[in-house]
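FAQ
Q: What does a multi-component entry look like?
A: The components come first, one per line:
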Amino acid sequence: MNNTGWDEFEIGAMLRSFDGTAATEIATTHQEDRAYSTNNSFTASVADWRLQKPVFNKDFCIDCQFCWIYCPDISIISRDKKMIGVDMDHCKGCGICVEVCPTNPKSLLMFSEQADEETELAQWPAKEETK
Amino acid sequence: MAFDKMELRETEVWDGNFAAAQALRQAQVDVVSAYPITPSTPIVEGYAKFKSDNYVEGEFVMVESEHAAMSGCIGAAAAGGRVATATSSQGLALMAETLYQASGMRLPIVLNIVNRALAAPLNVNGDHSDMYMVRDSGWIQFDAFCPQEAYDLNFIAFKVSEDHDVRTPAIVNQDGFMTSHTAQGVKTLSDDDAFNFVGTYKPMNDMLDFEHPVTHGVQTEEDWHFEHKARQHNDMMTIVPDKINKAFEDFEKLSGRKYNKVECYDMEDADVAVVCLGTSVETAREVAKDMRTKGIKAGVVGMRVIRPFPFAEIAEALKDIKAVAALDRSAPGGAAGMLFNEISGSLFNTDSKMLLSGYIYGLGGRDLTKKHLIDLYTELQANADAGKVLTQQQQFIGVRGPKLAYL
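Then the predicted structure of the entire assembly, as tokens:
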């Protein structure tokens, strides 16, 4: 945000979410295509809030969309009902997506922020047999 | 959805509460979010009844506290509606946090405060402790001295507050019981005239404008907070005063009733004067006339607007007066009293030789009698004759026990 003077902003403790004119068609426009203003939290990365990160393994995903529905930060990227991955700029590592994932083994697992994704995918746990 | 209009007589006999309720109806307030408290309850009760009887098209939101009442008003105002509520005393104290939210968010809300003392000891009667408590909350503050003015000032409050250059909430004060529960003749406006004066509500940055999404009530730290507060103060000092004058002029054209930020009575040739608020103004006016028959040129100044404080107008009204009394009806808590301080601030560093003394009176509904005011004017005349304040600068009037005087 610019360091503007007291007379240079709109009155009220308010910020506009979008640049430019009317924000029509928002519901049918993907986040990356929206004209978010610099004031909008979408433009800010909060990746450094995270201690643990989710890793997505598409081999086991059934595109049930549970993670997409439950993610409190709209950080699951899904297109045409197909799970694509996690928005790592906004994911805060809460682990809810992993918790709600119904597959066996899970398609999302939490690892430390420093973990190497390729390594973890290579040693993904096997299916757990029900007793 | 249509609502019914109400036929009013040219003059109705209303108390201050009912007059304010009628004004909320005629302004067609969209949302009243309220919690009851003596003596302000009949205002929101009145609105609720008008709504039930189909005289108003709006929503009445019943909440669990005054804090929630003003929070509801803030939400409704941010959403884009005309919003009002009422409270008193302890209720206002609980509401205080949210008053700062409303003014900081620049939301036009009209709050009727029926002035009442603050506990402890618990007391339901009128003084100005609650008014003074929120005086720096960034709200415009009007003061009514009688039911007629409680009615009129509500329309003026909406008009000023909702102006897009102002967008600052406004309080209309009236004295608990002395105004709120005392029925007097009130000259009415027709429903159409009243509504046309206030006008159809024009939203600004409203949350219900889905085409232009906004976030209201944002957080700022040391990087931005100061700029926001500076702008609030600047607009209060430079924009609001003229808007109030314009609203007073427009209202006079409509009703014939003329309001001024500083109301002067018998001040043209006055040697001594009292400055006060609320119903005390009317008592003082009567006594001032009596004093003139005794050879004391007495005048009265009533504060119609307390915030933004009319510094220039009060300085102009008092500059040639020899001795002035500032009457503060609020426990000063170790200070000189709001009116004493603000009047000092208005005339300090000017050429005025006015002698100013402060009086604390009427706490918890204690009467200010004509005898008190006769003694006060006599004391002021003695100061004027001596060319100096002969008493201490702060005195208490009407309290039992040894005389209290300080400073």
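Q: Is there any commentary attached?
A: Sometimes. For this entry: Residues 262-406 of chain B form a domain with the Rossmann fold fold (CATH 3.40.50.920).
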